Amino acid sequence: MKQLVRTFAIVFVAAFALMILASYLNKSQGYSGGNTLTIYNWGDYIDPDLLKEFEQETGIKVIYQTFDSNEAMLTKIEQGGTTFDVAIPSEYAISKMKEENLLVPLDHSKLPNLSNIDPRFMDLSFDEDNKYSIPYFWGTVGIVYNPELVGGLTFESWNDLWDPRLKNQILLLDGAREVIGMGLNSLGYSLNDTNEDHLQAALKKLSTLTPNVRAIVGDEIKMLLANEEAAVGLVWSGDASEIMDENDKLDYVVPEEGSNLWFDNMVIPKTASNIEGAHQFINFMLDPDHAARNAEYVGYSTPNAEALKLLPEDISEDERFYPDETLTGKLEVYNNLGKKMLSHYNDLFLEFKMHSK
Fold first, then answer.
1. pLDDT tens across 173-204, in order?
2. Which residues are annotated as a binding site?
3. Owning domain of residue 88
4. Do 56 and 190 share a structural domain?
5. Which InterPro entries does its entry note (predicted)?
């Protein structure tokens, strides 16, 4: 028995010593408490050089993790097992996070660079007074197409997608809100519509699109369109920009009936352990030079008015990605539809996908 106790004591002391050593090493490498900042973001959605500069300027070590959907991000934060100091969700997810008390209110006095944000993108319905979130990137949902392969179609209307000349030529994003929203917009309805008759009408119309649908895909849509594996794609504007960089034959348009105006915003989740560092990072990203460089790297539209002035004219004056208020006035932000209605949208989309096979 004494030998067992002695063995246990030795193991306990050794384990404790290892904990002390690990703590010392972490502190020496910037991995402790206020010296660490864990950022949770979409993949390939920041200039990595900016992370290095932030570390050099502040002495804070950045741990960078990525997610591939708002739903995956929400699940991880709801579980609470991982400390995230800054996350970058989309507008409807922010609304849900507010409802579930998953966000820390921002201290605007620690964000002097907030004045650089275009007022058009502040105080929106999903976060009035920007109490919990600060704009990071914004954009639209529209159509990328190859003019050489579509027989003169210009896609000024969503209804052009139903043209029989496009048989087996359309790629769609694998997203319920985007595809069901497209169906609703094509009928003149809001993409936040919850009227069951309107939703069924949208599903019925989408079912007639299936002869033209080549595939419903994820991130590979960029490669497929750039390689001319299909003539047309339903995409986010930032992806459109990236696709067009790879293949300059392609063009991008938002149909006249309207579409989605989306925002990805920086927030501080309740899981945060370094709230001061989180404010420092958000303010760092709001610096005009940093925001401009980030926009050039990522390819999405910056909401930073001062950063926009620093971008090359071929970017800042491209109305496909920086549309005027005439078009943005027709666009809608996704509302948080609630669990029941969002589930219904997903069911409708699944029914459409099954019909498309």
1. 998 999 999 999 999 999 999 999 999 999 99
2. 92
3. 34-131+264-322
4. no
5. SBP (IPR006059), Sperm_putr-bd (IPR001188)
